[in-house]
Amino acid sequence: MNRGILIAGNESALTNAVETETAKRAESFAVALIPDRFSGKQIPAAGSEDSLDQSSSEKGRFPLDWNPGSPISARTLIIAAENRLQRIDGAILVCDPPSVHNAAAGRANLDPADVDMLFNDHIKGWFFLVKELAAVFKARGEGILALVYPETNPKDDDTDLLKSAALASFRSLTAGLLSGAADEPYHTIGFAGIAAGDEAGFASFIIKQIDDVTRRGYTRPQAGKLHKYGKLGFFR
Fold first, then answer.
1. Assign residue 220 a region: left if phi > 0, alpha if psi is -120 to 50, beta otherwise?
2. Is residue 61 within 8 Å of residue 31, measured between CB atoms?
3. What is the pLDDT of residues 58-105, one digit of tens each?
4. Per-residue burial over 209-224, b = 16 or more CB atoms within 10 Å of its CB, e = otherwise
5. Which of 152, 178, 200, 202 measures 20 to 30 Å from 233, CA to CA?
């Protein structure tokens, strides 16, 4: 993986692990992070030193601003990534939304502002970004679109309505894209797994599969496949 890679995702251990693995193999990559803005949390400004994972803040890493709820921002993000990387050969989208603790306190206690933030940042944003990436890859006739999300215990999902809603939406988006992947000139592949406590292993598996697609010259068998990473490191 020595080409330009765009990583977009939530600020999370899984996203950081994907960054770390990408930094080992890619000459350059761009990163667009969705900040955790639920319930009035204060977060560092995008691009500031405090907002970056210091383990991968090095030459070849380009942090980019992104307002997920805006289709214009999605287009601007793609243009900025192409300017930095020369071109986007692959994109890794990581949906690992933060827990919204007030949601666990009871359905009646949901903050309307959190509901709006969920829809804008963690649902609409992925659809807008996928649309722009698909246009770029279709025009070029190649590329890799990788969609990543953690598998969770259904009982845990029940305690956090907003997080479970965001993951359910992303899973549905992934399934829809994978079902139509055979008809596209670029590769769409999905990754799901139990990541808690083993983010590094999951990330290593993701990057290995993407490397395999690149080495094979984008042959079709990998397109449209959902790779599952097992709890004990077994792949199924």
1. alpha
2. yes
3. 678 999 999 999 999 999 999 999 999 999 999 999 999 887 655 444
4. bbeebbeeebeeebbb
5. 178
